[in-house]
Write a structure and sequence with these properties.
With 526 residues, the chain is α+β, with helices and mostly antiparallel strands. The protein contains 17 helices and 19 strands. Strand 6 and strand 7 form a beta hairpin.
């Protein structure tokens, strides 16, 4: 190649790099809920986790087609021993400020996830410590064998140690309080995008990270998220072109959206189960007319509340078919699920009245009932319908609904007698749900969302054994046994698995995922 040709080639390359991308476009999207925090270890909920994945990477992440963990910040891993796993880190990775990511950042971030304010200890289950081999290699030292470690690591994202230390963010923000750290409103990650602006309740604006390590094939240069609580307003924004994509269109609007030539709707079963939790710990319920005791401690009462719910009617009328009624705490995609545990107890209002009478409450009782009003499909409407169903057996539920940003901190403070939760399973393994929801409250993620404080010695034994069981046949049998025990003791009241529709303009390409999150690397606006 001559010098002249070389110069022309260099000049052409410069033009290609500096010329504006003709097809580059913003991606404007919406859902009902606001982002609660940018701190990656503070609030463990699906919307937040999916959004921060745009600007924070993990060692491994799910492939959106196969849902198998694949390397992200790690390029490879191998077992040194059953309790030691070695990860080779991707070389040349930089944070969005241009500083290099090293093993020290990985060790810091995993330790932060295990810290006092973290809501992500459930994902560090089984990890003893992370040890530096060199700047690009770390060893995960385990308390025992852990067959789902890779799945857990998909939700453990990596933060800059130096940035956190410089900006009073060594510990995660405690979501139970109003106290903020710098990482609550700011971010420093290695992902394909970085935060340009976050105005709570108004918008989150992301722009492409110029230091991103990966090949980012998307033509989206800017992501703008606008929370819109009102269903009609959210749909109107899509119809008018104000937004390109709605994560949670209302069931009643779906027929006209499907019939609009300028739009398309994608459907898929989510790995999320909606259920009610119940305070089984207090000796007297707050706000109840029953004094000196707690009716929810009685299994007969919990079963009566369960069997007085007409789930078929809820699915047909309130959800417009966007639910799969279930009798257990996990969806079919989750390891441990079986048809047997999935089967619901029969709807039986008369039987429910008898159970209440047998428990000593022939006239029923009053009880506090809390629900979110902008997190799950028709969540407020579901709770209103269930309130009416319970009233028919004499249970007078005093319903209060709150937006998700205030609802979840309230629930974590144990301030609700009966509460709604939707539980997705990022690991696709029932241990995640059982350890979080039914294991007695303890350390290392045990019972981290068991806010009704259900406790059963047999359940604790099973969960603790499953944590380290490597025989998959034995492990699956134990998971199913634990799910059945949860059903038999009515640890919670399961309702349904969500069926998720995404609505968008015709020119938007996305990959629908069972965890109801967008893969930001694959979004395209044509």
């Amino acid at each position: 190649m001559t010098s002249r040709i070389k110069l022309l080639s260099v000049a052409a390359a410069v033009i290609l790099m500096t010329a504006p991308a003709v097809h580059a476009k913003p991606f404007k999207w919406s859902s009902a809920s606001d982002i609660s925090t940018l701190d990656i270890h503070s609030q463990n909920n699906a919307l937040n986790n999916g959004v921060v994945a745009a600007f924070y990477d993990a060692l491994v992440y799910y492939n959106s087609t196969t849902f198998k963990p694949e390397g992200q910040l790690a390029t490879s891993w191998r077992e040194i021993s059953p309790t030691q796993l070695r990860f080779t880190l991707r070389s040349g990775v930089k944070f969005s400020d241009g500083t290099t990511m090293t093993a020290d950042d990985v060790i810091f971030s995993i330790g932060r996830a295990m810290g006092k304010n973290s809501n992500f200890a459930i994902y560090t289950q089984g990890i003893d410590k992370v040890v530096k081999v060199n700047d690009t290699t770390v060893d995960f030292m385990m308390k025992g064998p852990n067959p789902v470690l890779l799945n857990q690591l998909t939700e453990l994202r990596i933060m800059s140690k130096a940035w956190a230390e410089r900006n009073r963010s060594v510990d995660a923000k405690d979501m139970r309080t109003n106290e903020e750290n710098f990482a609550h409103r700011n971010a420093m990650g290695t992902g394909p995008y970085m935060v340009k602006e976050w105005l709570p309740d108004q918008r989150l604006v992301l722009v492409k990270n110029p230091n991103y390590w990966g090949s980012n094939p998307t033509n989206v240069t800017e992501i703008i998220y606008t929370p819109i609580k009102a269903e009609a307003t959210r749909v109107a924004a899509l119809l008018s072109g104000e937004v390109d994509f709605v994560l949670d269109p209302s069931p009643q609007d779906l027929p006209r959206l499907r019939n609009n030539a300028n739009l398309k709707v994608m459907d898929g079963v989510e790995n999320r189960t909606i259920f009610f939790g119940l305070d089984q710990w207090r000796d007297e319920l707050v706000g109840s007319n029953i004094k000196g005791k707690n009716p929810l401690k009685d299994q007969r009462v919990r079963r009566a509340l369960y069997q007085s719910i007409d789930s078929a009617s809820l699915n047909r009328v309130t959800l417009r078919g966007l639910g799969q009624p279930t009798g257990t705490l996990v969806a079919p995609q989750v390891n441990g699920w079986t048809e047997g545990v999935h089967r619901r107890l029969a709807f039986d209002a008369d039987g429910a009245k008898k159970l209440l009478a047998d428990a000593g409450y022939p006239q029923g009782f009053e009880v506090d009932f809390a629900c979110p009003n902008n997190r799950y499909i028709n969540d407020e409407e579901i709770c209103q319908a269930v309130t009416a169903m319970w009233s028919r057996i004499g249970v007078r539920a005093k319903l209060r609904t709150l937006p998700s940003v205030t609802y979840f901190p309230m629930v974590l403070r144990n301030e609700a007698s009966i509460y709604m939760l939707g539980w997705g399973v990022p690991t696709f393994d029932a241990l995640y749900s059982l350890q979080s929801l039914t294991r007695s409250v303890g350390q290392g993620g045990d019972g981290n969302y068991n806010v009704g404080r259900y406790s059963n010695p047999r359940m604790d034994v099973i969960v603790d054994r499953v944590k380290a069981e490597t025989d998959l046949l034995v492990r699956n049998r134990l998971l199913t046994e634990a799910l059945q025990l949860s059903n038999d003791t009515v640890s919670h009241i399961p309702l349904h698995n969500q069926i998720i529709p995404w609505a968008m303009k015709r020119n938007v390409d996305v990959v629908h995922r069972a965890d109801n999150r967008i893969d930001w690397r694959l979004v395209k606006v044509n």
